[in-house]
Amino acid sequence: MAENDTPQTSDQQTSGESAEQQFAVQKIYTKDISFESPNAPGIFTEQLQPQINLELNSNGKRVADDVYEVVLSLTVTVKHEEKTAYLIEVQQSGVFYIKGFNRDELGHMLGSFCPEMLFPYAREVVSDIATRGGFPQLLLAPVNFEALYAKHLADQQQADTDSASQ
Predict the structure, then answer these.
(1) Mean pLDDT by 10-residue block, N- to C-terminus, for the chain (166 residues)?
(2) Cα–Cα distance between 27 and 24 in angstroms, integer?
(3) Domains in the chain and their CATH numbers?
(4) How many CB atoms lie within 10 A of CB 107?
(5) Angle formed by the axes of helices 145-165 and 114-132, to 10°?
(6) Which of 89, 97, 137, 138 minimizes the C-alpha distance to 114?
């Protein structure tokens, strides 16, 4: 890019920055899968009234220049009364090329945008494993990763405020 002595306006800077921003999915894969049905086969003789608990976690890390791995971890616990019918743990991962984003934007990409891309894959794995385990299909409801990321930022800011005041 040739440099010139003319200062850029904010519109020119914005369009120049966005032209340099790059995002690409390089690979989506299942990193880890676990299925347990500790009360089988007895659980199959009962009329299930399932209580479903979903735990989500995501983690992004740099693996090379402008290349990041994001791991979306799901733990689904399905109980009937006090007995665990089954437990599914899935780590759905992706490798993403992300370039030209500032620190806050990169945090948003790794903490919200990428996990949102991975969730449909993880949702399909959970559904398939539940069925293969002999249980009815389990379709997880969509997740608002934008809201979860905003809550994470607010919680982090509150924790920083609390530690600064002590």
Answers:
(1) 42 52 97 97 92 96 97 97 96 97 95 97 98 95 95 87 74
(2) 9
(3) 19-155 (3.10.420.10)
(4) 15
(5) 110
(6) 97
